[in-house]
Amino acid sequence: MERQKDLIEMSPKDDQLNLLYKNLKYNKLITFFGNVESKVMIIGLAPVQSHIDSDSKSCFKFDIDLNQDNKSGGVLIKIFKEFNLKITDFFWNNVYKIPIESITEYTEYTIFHEILEKEISLINPTKIICLGSDSFKVVKNLNIGVNINIIKVFHPAYLLRNAITFDEMLINYKFALL
User: How far apart, in whole angstroms, are the C-alpha atoms of residue 5 and residue 16?
Assistant: First the structure.
């Protein structure tokens, strides 16, 4: 619980928040979810608009409707079930805490990168799994130390958008998760 408290207290300074909220209609940041004691951190690029608009009280939201295969969160849940893993056993995060299309100034990117570096330092994972190439590009360029194994996997939406099978997706995730 101490790490979770530290993460919550590590919020951006007021002037940083004012910059982040400038020109935004959003009133909350989507930050983290899961086990703060996990040695595996899973990082996506940014929340989508529907996560910001939801009334969810959690800091990180999955599209958990298991009856809909057309959601990234549903794909992740199926992958985790296939390997008998629990999503809540991992620490989940995003590079950016608001939808990427809402970032309008270069300094906003820098602030989010600094926040993520601090979050990684606090969680101290041995492995970071990046969901997709975009989050991987950001994470590999952060100042986070050399003893963290950074692994890129297909973003779950890749299954929904491209000619890849679920079995191919499982092969891609197997090395990273197990």
Answer: 20
User: Model confidence over 96-153: pLDDT tens digits?
Assistant: 887 788 788 888 888 889 889 988 998 999 999 999 999 999 999 999 977 999 999 9
Residue 63 confidence (pLDDT): 44
- Distance from C-alpha of 41 to C-alpha of 113, rounded to nearest angstrom: 15
pTM of the complete model = 0.80
At 95, list the tokens.
Answer: 């590079």
Residues 150 and 105: their CA atoms lie apart, in Å, by 27
Round to the nearest angstrom and report the end-to-end CA distance of the chain.
26
CA pair distance 25, 75, nearest whole angstrom: 29
Nearest of 123, 128, 174 to residue 152 by alpha carbon:
128
The topology under which CATH files domain 2-177 is Uracil-DNA Glycosylase, subunit E (3.40.470)
> Edge-to-edge strand order for the sheet containing 32-34?
32-34, 91-94, 40-44, 127-131, 149-153
- The domain segmentation of the chain, as residue ranges, is 2-177
Kindly report, residue by residue over 43-58, the tens digit of the pLDDT.
Answer: 999 876 554 444 444 4
Ramachandran region, residue 15 (left: φ > 0; alpha: ψ -120 to 50; beta: rest): alpha
Q: Which two tokens stand for residue 60?
A: 């990180």
